[in-house]
Amino acid sequence: MNYVGLDLHKKYSFITVMDAFGNIRHRERILNDKAKIVNFFYSRFPHSKVAMEASRNWYWMYDLLDGITDEVKLAHPLKTRMIAEARIKTDKIDSEILAHLLRTDLLPCSYVPSRETRDEREILRYRASLVGIQTKIKNKIHSLLSKYNITLEVENIFTQKGKELLHTVSLPSISQKVFQGYIVALEQIEHLIDESEKIIDEVAKPDDKVKILITHPGIGIYSALTISKEIDDINRFATARKLRCYAGTVASVFISGDKVH
Q1: How far apart are the first and last CA of the chain?
Q2: Which secondary structure element, helix H or strand E, spans residue 25, and what is its range?
Q3: Residues near 82 by Cβ (< 8 Å), separated by ≥ 6?
Q4: Residue 178 scores a pLDDT above 70
Q5: CA distance 191 to 77
Q6: For position 168, what pLDDT does the model report?
């Protein structure tokens, strides 16, 4: 059996192959080309277990390796660094550490949701990012109105009536173009949010956990589906406290001298 540490980057990966005794059999920097990677494992190291870190672009590599190797494990980046902190950090050292932790069964692994769950998470995170952009645009509109001391006689300027009044606002020439650009951008973002919510409604329909969660006051379909998909398999949490920590609802405590935060 070969134990492989793979340090994944955007354009290339560094691979270290070890035997069961920790002897390095091969090192190579390889381009992130699917055909090259498939050929590397099929023709040269067909019986391999692979460890790679959960970097921002791990999806495609994990799915590829999952189909061509004996086993692939996704390492938890923070926990891996805690176990194997190095003063000198290089691709070669990182891949070697991953291989060592894998062969000694000391690799701290991240949970890997199914491809379907990962795909469904994307629409939820997409909507969340759109709402963030929407908020920034609204703040820009408020800022421009404030700069020119313009107050509209509505409680919320982003209601239907408020938007009608926004179209009547007159600012100096360049600022007017900027203001109108923000209005157009806001309308486009709102349209995209509406479209994303339709997809979310379709994804949520067959989810039994969503049906239970929306019976709780204050939880709608979006929140329920987010809870369902981000937790995924609740059995991966050994205790309720670990689930609460994952959700960020357990307070952190910082004590220094006689001060407690």
Answers
A1: 50
A2: strand 24-31
A3: none
A4: yes
A5: 37
A6: 93
